[in-house]
């Protein structure tokens, strides 16, 4: 969420130090890259330059750019899900060790993120600090089960790499983090329920829905009378419901136009089939995403596994009705500003989109409700929710 947590902590006067890997806003080689003319900068450099934000003073930031480069290199070399998980496991441990080495200053509490938190929480707890971990996605055990079901439904869509032993290590690491945390922050009820399903300490969980920047705002353009424009944003893969999107696009051929913005992680055959029925833009820079929301009539995210998908917040804030699943962990209100449909229920999803195509008054009404809901989705509203929880627990 573009540094939302450290930003709101700084705004409240609560930020002692923000630890991260690469931060382009600090002095050093990442900032020097900003001198490149924008038209000459590769997309990867443009994304790196997006790792900066206003409102975070340099003196409160400690970054590890060479560690960040090493982490990036490991991910680029990963040729299987297990290799990628090994890079995440290495990074979580290495990052935690660096933070513990550099210390907590005058902090009374620490806030860290799942699988990159264990060493930090353990050291902080030993020093008597209040410990918070944010579980950013449903627990890994449940995630693996959902992804296995997706691969069984859509065989040959993504590379098959057999058993992933490292996934179990990451799941165990998450559970250890829960035990070290005084508070577990969940972005959605879907995540909290997942922790409960895994036998985790649900009594220490609190649900705090997210927020997005104010530049995501309703687009008041008149909706076209032609095919319904359907947008999906995120990595094109089974986790986001690629198979479902394809089935729905086929069912609505001639009725709707589909566009998917994001990197593609499918095998060539599946990618070719997707390309026949929708526009795949590939990855775009963060600053370019607004034009795609402006193009759309409705946002479609049939995810099988999320934490609380911020793209649904962005779409609602842009005044788009959202058709999604319970597993997306969204704040969509069924029948009010969109529709919630069970995962893999392609006929129901196609039916909802067809309904929005045929009933433009309903499309407009749900879009207006989404825009009205936008205030609750702002970073200001998120800050109030977040700080209220922290104040209650920390008694600041």
Could you explain the architecture of this structure?
There is one protein chain. By secondary structure, this protein is an alpha/beta fold. The protein has two domains: 224 residues, Rossmann fold (3-Layer(aba) Sandwich); 150 residues, Glycogen Phosphorylase B (Rossmann fold, 3-Layer(aba) Sandwich). Helix content is 45%, strand content 13%. The protein contains 16 helices and twelve strands. The strands form three sheets. Strands 9-8-7-10-11-12 form a six-stranded parallel sheet, sandwiched between helices. It has a four-stranded parallel sheet with strand order 3-4-5-6, with helices on both faces. The longest helix is centred in the first third of the chain and has 22 residues. The chain is globular, with a radius of gyration of 21 Å. The two termini are 25 Å apart.
Helix/strand order? HEHHEHHEHEHHEHEEHEHEHEHEEHHH
First CA to last CA: what distance? Answer: 25 Å
By CATH, the architecture of the largest domain is named 3-Layer(aba) Sandwich
Helix/sheet category: alpha/beta
Whole-number average pLDDT? 91
Strand order of the largest sheet: 9-8-7-10-11-12
CATH topology of the largest domain: Rossmann fold
**Strand tally, please?**
12
**Overall shape:** globular
Q: Could you tell me the radius of gyration in angstroms?
A: 21 Å
How helix-rich are the residues, as a percent range?
40-55%
Beta fraction: 5-15%
Note the main sheet. Answer: 6 strands, parallel
CATH hierarchy, class of the largest domain:
Alpha Beta
What count of domains describes the coordinates? 2
Number of helices: 16
Low-pLDDT segments, ≥5 res: none
């Amino acid at each position: 969420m573009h540094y939302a947590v450290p930003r709101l902590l700084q705004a409240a006067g609560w930020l002692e130090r923000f630890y991260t890997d690469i931060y382009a806003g600090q002095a050093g080689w990442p900032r020097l890259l900003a001198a490149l003319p924008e038209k000459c900068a590769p997309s990867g450099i443009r994304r790196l330059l997006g790792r900066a934000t206003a409102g975070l003073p340099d003196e409160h930031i400690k970054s590890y750019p060479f560690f960040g480069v090493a982490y990036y290199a490991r991910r680029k070399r990963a040729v299987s899900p297990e290799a990628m998980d090994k890079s995440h496991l290495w990074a979580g441990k290495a990052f935690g060790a660096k933070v513990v080495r550099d210390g907590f200053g005058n902090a009374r509490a620490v806030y860290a993120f799942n699988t990159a938190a264990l060493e930090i929480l353990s050291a902080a707890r030993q020093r008597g600090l209040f410990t918070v971990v944010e579980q950013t996605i449903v627990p890994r055990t449940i995630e693996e089960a959902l992804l296995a079901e997706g691969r069984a439904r859509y065989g040959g869509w993504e590379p098959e790499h057999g058993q992933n032993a490292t996934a179990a290590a990451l799941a165990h690491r998450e559970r250890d983090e829960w035990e070290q945390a005084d508070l577990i922050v969940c972005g959605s009820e879907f995540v909290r329920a997942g922790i409960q399903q895994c036998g985790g300490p649900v009594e220490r969980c609190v649900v705090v829905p997210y927020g997005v920047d104010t530049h995501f705002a309703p687009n008041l353009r008149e909706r076209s009378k032609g095919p319904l424009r359907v947008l999906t944003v995120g990595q094109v893969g089974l986790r986001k419901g690629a198979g479902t999107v394809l089935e729905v696009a086929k069912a609505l051929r001639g009725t709707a136009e589909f566009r998917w913005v994001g990197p593609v992680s499918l095998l060539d055959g599946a990618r070719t089939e997707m390309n026949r029925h929708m526009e795949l833009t590939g990855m775009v820079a963060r600053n370019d995403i607004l034009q795609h929301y402006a193009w759309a009539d409705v946002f479609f995210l049939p995810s099988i596994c999320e934490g609380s998908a911020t793209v649904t917040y962005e779409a609602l804030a842009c005044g788009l009705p959202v058709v999604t699943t319970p597993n997306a962990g969204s704040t969509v209100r069924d029948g009010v500003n969109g529709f919630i449909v069970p995962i893999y229920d392609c006929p129901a999803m196609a039916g909802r989109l067809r309904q929005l195509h045929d009933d433009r008054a309903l499309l407009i009404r749900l879009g207006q409700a989404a825009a009205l809901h936008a205030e609750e989705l702002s970073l200001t509203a998120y800050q109030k929710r977040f700080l209220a929880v922290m104040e209650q627990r920390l008694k600041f």
